[in-house]
Amino acid sequence: MKTPPPRAQSGPAILAALRDDISSGKLAPGAVLRQAELAEQFGTSRIPVREALNSLQAEGLVQIEPNRGAFVTTLSAAELRELFDLRVLLETDVLRRAVPLHTERSLRRLEAIQHELDGESVPLEWLRLDRAFHDELYAPSARPRSLQLVGSLRAAVERFYLARLGPEARRPEWNDEHQRLIALVRAGDAEGACAMLAGHLRETERSMA
Question: Using 50, 70 and 90 to split pLDDT, how confident is the model at 47?
């Protein structure tokens, strides 16, 4: 019995599927993206695949080179350093603004996320929970454009993090650092919290070098 051909997918669905595969590390940095193979995989012509790859190139997830084709983007040491320089600048700024606006309710939400993170061992899930922790940490800053940039910078780093550490990566020892961050925020110590956060980010950068 013949295997039925894959159901044709739309351009937006192809774009979303490829973006998810890249962001999750399923498609590793440097992976070759062949239009003919992708068209067969998605049961479509090359045109929507080509459009999806062009969109991913605009997002910085794919690099397209003449006569070579498309590849999942990689990060040089200098690019990684620049990303973390920007993260430190932006994330300490939004945290400094958020600290005096945190409430007992928001701090309890932080503690609840951290409690869940403490018990998680699946890499994609502990990354998701760590992202949720930092989102909640910065949320009171009420700086939507800054928070959007923070999210973009983090997304640019996350896929390389898992790709470098591997799918069986053990969760980093974030517990003490996160608990100290919560304590500093609760005490209203914005500068102490920012110094703690900067060190936390730099340690993550070193683990990826």
Answer: very high
Least confident of 7-21, 52-66, 136-150: 7-21
In one letter, which amino acid is 201? L
142 three-class SS:
coil
Residue 53 near residue 35 (C-beta atoms within 8 A): yes
**Distances in whole angstroms, Cα of residue 100 to Cα of each of 51, 151, 166, 186:** 46, 22, 38, 9
Per-residue three-class SS string for 38-59: HHHHHCCCHHHHHHHHHHHHHC
Whether 57 and 17 have beta carbons less than 8 Å apart is answered as no
Report pLDDT for 201: 94
Tell me the three state secondary structure of residue 74: coil
For the range 161-164, what are the long-range contacts, defined as Cβ-Cβ under 8 Å and sequence gap of 24 or more? 161/127, 161/204, 161/208, 162/24, 162/25, 162/123, 162/124, 162/127, 163/25, 163/28, 163/29, 164/208
pTM above 0.70, yes or no: yes
Helix (H), strand (E) at residue 32: strand 32-33
| 20 CB-near residues (< 8 Å, 6+ apart) | 26
